[in-house]
Design a protein that fits this description.
Number of helices: 6
Structural class: alpha/beta
Radius of gyration: 19 Å
Distance between the termini: 37 Å
Order of helices and strands: HEHEHHEEEHEH
C-alpha cells in the first residue's frame, strides 16, 4: 500500500468479500493504513467469522470514511433454484438439472422487506441521519431493481429516500 502513488492511495477502498475477507479483516487493514472501507450486506451474510451483527458491522465500516460520502453495497440473495447444464458421466450427453441457489448469487431485485429495516437500523444506530451514505444496488435486473426499490421506499420508508 505504502509503495503506491498518493493519488492511488486516496482512491483505494476495501470491501468485505464473500469468501475470504470479513468485516473485521478489512477494519484491521483500515486501522493500519487508513484505507476507507465499503460494507457489503450480502457478503457479510456469507463470511462473518466473528459473528458480528450486520448493523454493527456496517456502522464500523461507515466510520472509516474521513472524506467523501460513505458507500455500502446491498443485494438480496437469489432464492430460486438455478438450472445448470452438466455432462452425464454415463451417456456423455449434456443434461440440465435444477440445483439450489448459492448464497453468493444476487437476486434479480432487492427485497425491500430486508432493505428497509436494515437501513433504518443503520441510520438509527450509526447516527447516519446526519451523515448520509450512498447505497450501491447489486442486482441482476440492474436499473429495473433500482427503480423498483425507489418505488418501494416511497411507500414503505419515505424518510430513507433522498432526491
Amino acid at each position: 500500500y505504502y509503495t503506491l502513488p498518493e493519488n492511488v492511495q486516496r482512491r483505494l477502498v476495501l470491501e468485505n468479500d464473500d469468501t475470504s475477507w470479513g468485516v473485521d479483516d478489512v477494519l484491521r487493514i483500515h486501522e493500519a493504513t487508513g484505507i476507507r472501507c465499503i460494507f457489503d450486506h450480502q457478503h457479510h451474510g456469507c463470511i462473518n467469522p466473528d459473528g458480528r451483527d450486520a448493523v454493527d458491522a456496517c456502522c464500523a465500516i461507515l466510520k472509516t470514511w474521513n472524506r467523501g460520502k460513505p458507500k455500502i453495497h446491498f443485494s438480496s440473495p437469489r432464492v430460486e433454484d438455478r438450472i445448470v447444464g452438466r455432462r452425464d458421466k454415463t451417456t456423455g450427453k449434456r443434461v440440465q438439472s435444477s440445483v439450489a441457489p448459492l448464497a453468493t448469487q444476487h437476486a434479480d431485485m432487492i427485497d425491500a422487506g430486508v432493505f428497509v429495516p436494515f437501513t433504518r437500523a443503520v441510520r438509527e444506530k450509526c447516527g447516519s441521519n446526519d451523515v448520509p451514505f450512498d447505497v450501491m444496488v447489486e442486482a441482476k435486473s440492474k436499473d429495473l431493481a433500482v427503480i423498483q426499490l425507489r418505488d418501494d421506499l416511497k411507500t414503505m420508508a419515505p424518510e430513507i429516500v433522498v432526491e
